[in-house]
Q: What sequence folds into this?
């Protein structure tokens, strides 16, 4: 029960936080700080939010209803975000397993490559992808990704978005691997004759869940930033790009709240699972 | 400090950054930030072969952009802005968050916990988006009038302030958590028992422990700022302001006021498909700088970790294990009346 209260209060606190953040552009009158302007903006935003069914946005010279159209944008971005994260997790885990069973000089190379790729900003990956798509097109007439289309595409964005989180997660998992391999219970299990694979799959996986729990917020946030830039560069019809193109406080706040809710749920579920695993692991 | 120079990663990272910064500053002094321009190429007989933009193969070493400005020189000029801004903003972030975090972690734990919701909320919004919202009013040139509302210096200061401010809540929380963790360590109890005042413990024990972590956080912040600048550049928000030229024929055009790298990348990104080198070369340099800071970070981590004994298990095989057993070395007592003696002993 205490868990529910804690989670509930976290939710409310963050909800209010997003609300407060959305009105910040109202604080700046040119370059001067204008607290009065901020309060007015905040007030106006809250009023508009209460009547959220009536919110509109401008496109060209037309005004359109924000709801329920905005849900499409929301689902699109959220699906890409979560699919990319889940994909990244499993691919990273797969790589970690491959690293585990590889001889040590291959392991060294994996680690070096991971270190190198950690320095790649998302823009670089996007540039490479663009160049790659065009190069493939020139050679084979196959257009892997149609950047001009209005239709919503899923496969390529998910794949591309998952690249950087995969490296990030891989680094964390390798760290866990290195730490766990030295621990006494691993040696014990090995002497008992349990297959290394089984040990790995059970325990390393559990400890990975734990470690990523600590970093989970920043990983999601990082991927979200990547998604923003990707939506911008590839003209995807996602919610974040929508926020960028309609930079009013109301739309910003509403969109941020809509994004926040699924992400919060996702993180909470993940954290609960991780905490449960921590208790089981602590009993080891 | 001396062994810092022996760590190859640290040295390499440092070397690259110093090289870039140094040549950039030298360029300013020697050439006054003027970019050489080659609009047209002539062959030996004076015939016109080609016009800008030129590939790296035509004009060494990195080619030119659409107007013939040499990319190499632009990159060198912009280096000091990009690296300098990252360094400056990261330093300010660290300085302010450090003070707030240490004080907060020591004295104001309760208040910090209640404001954590606000800080939490910032984790759900891409920071580049947030900065874009705050900055766009000030930094974009008003296309209609063709002038900026605010002077170059004002715009620069404003951007630096905003870039610093957006990271302060999260960094302060980070540092206050670290501080609090150090306060909870065992030896602090000892110091308190011995009668040290809070301030004394703070300066003599807490701060030295925070030191290495501060460096790591600083370097991480530098990378964050670099990436943030890159994103803002892509969103056409250039440092020092954005020239905006709506051109119905060639397409809208944005130019950066300074040659700062994210500005170079942002304004030329649309050339990626066909004149690939124009945005790609600055991007590669960007990757290089981020990589160098990562080297610095990794090198520093290795240096600080070496001071902790590595927990390696070595099999100790000493000769004494193998000595043979000499029965005459022991006195064997007879177990005769022991039992009765014991009976009387335990009453």
A:
């Amino acid at each position: 029960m205490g868990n529910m209260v804690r989670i509930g209060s976290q939710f409310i606190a963050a909800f209010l936080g997003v609300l407060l953040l959305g009105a910040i552009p109202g604080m700046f009158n040119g370059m001067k700080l204008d607290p009065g302007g901020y309060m007015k903006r905040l007030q106006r935003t809250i009023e508009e939010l209460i009547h959220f069914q009536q919110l509109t946005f401008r496109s060209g010279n037309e005004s359109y209803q924000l709801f329920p159209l905005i849900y499409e944008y929301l689902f699109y971005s959220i699906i890409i975000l979560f699919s990319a994260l889940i994909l990244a997790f499993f691919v990273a885990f797969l790589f970690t397993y491959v690293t585990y069973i590889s001889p040590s000089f291959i392991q060294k190379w994996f680690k070096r490559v991971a270190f190198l790729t950690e320095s790649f900003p998302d823009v670089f990956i996007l540039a490479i992808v663009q160049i790659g798509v065009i190069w493939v097109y020139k050679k084979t007439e196959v257009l892997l990704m149609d950047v001009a289309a209005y239709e919503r595409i899923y496969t390529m964005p998910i794949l591309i978005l998952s690249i950087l989180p995969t490296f990030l997660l891989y680094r964390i998992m390798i760290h866990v691997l290195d730490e766990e391999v030295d621990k006494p219970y691993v040696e014990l299990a090995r002497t008992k004759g349990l297959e290394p694979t089984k040990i790995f799959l059970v325990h390393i996986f559990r400890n990975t869940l734990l470690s990523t729990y600590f970093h989970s917020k920043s990983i999601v946030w990082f991927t979200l930033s990547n998604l923003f830039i990707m939506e911008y560069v590839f003209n995807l019809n996602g919610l974040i790009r929508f926020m960028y193109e309609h930079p009013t406080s109301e739309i910003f706040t509403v969109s941020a709240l809509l994004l926040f809710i699924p992400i919060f749920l996702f993180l909470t579920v993940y954290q609960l699972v991780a905490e449960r695993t921590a208790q089981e692991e602590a009993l080891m | 400090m001396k062994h810092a120079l022996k760590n190859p990663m640290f040295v390499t990272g440092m070397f690259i950054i110093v090289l870039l910064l140094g040549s950039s500053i030298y360029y300013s002094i020697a050439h006054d930030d003027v970019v050489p321009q080659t609009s047209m190429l002539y062959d030996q007989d004076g015939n016109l072969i080609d016009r800008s933009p030129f590939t790296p193969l035509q004009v060494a070493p990195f080619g030119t952009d659409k107007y013939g400005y040499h990319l190499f020189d632009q990159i060198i000029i912009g280096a000091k802005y990009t690296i300098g801004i990252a360094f400056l903003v990261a330093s300010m972030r660290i300085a302010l968050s450090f003070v707030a975090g240490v004080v907060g972690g020591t004295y104001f734990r309760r208040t910090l916990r209640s404001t954590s919701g606000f800080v939490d909320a910032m984790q759900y919004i891409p920071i580049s988006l947030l900065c874009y919202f705050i900055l766009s009013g000030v930094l974009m040139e008003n296309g209609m009038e063709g002038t900026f509302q605010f002077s170059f210096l004002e715009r620069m200061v404003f951007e630096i302030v905003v870039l610093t401010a957006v990271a302060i809540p999260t960094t302060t929380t980070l540092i206050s958590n670290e501080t609090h963790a150090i306060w909870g360590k065992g030896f602090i109890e000892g110091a308190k028992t011995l009668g040290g005042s809070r301030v004394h413990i703070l300066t003599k024990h807490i701060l030295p422990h925070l030191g290495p972590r501060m460096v790591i956080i600083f370097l991480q912040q530098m990378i964050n700022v670099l990436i943030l600048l890159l994103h803002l550049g892509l969103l056409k928000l250039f440092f020092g302001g954005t020239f905006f030229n709506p051109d119905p024929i060639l397409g809208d055009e944005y130019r950066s006021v300074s040659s700062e790298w994210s500005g170079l990348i942002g304004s030329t990104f649309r050339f990626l498909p066909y004149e690939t080198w124009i945005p790609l070369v600055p991007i590669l340099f960007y990757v290089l700088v981020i990589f160098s800071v990562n080297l610095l970070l990794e090198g520093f981590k290795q240096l600080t970790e070496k001071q902790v004994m590595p927990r390696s298990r070595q099999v100790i095989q000493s000769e004494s294990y193998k000595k043979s057993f000499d029965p005459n070395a022991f006195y064997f007592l007879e177990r005769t009346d022991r039992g009765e003696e014991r009976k009387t002993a335990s009453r």
User: Anything to note?
Assistant: The mean pLDDT of chain A is 81. The longest helix of chain A spans residues 196-233.
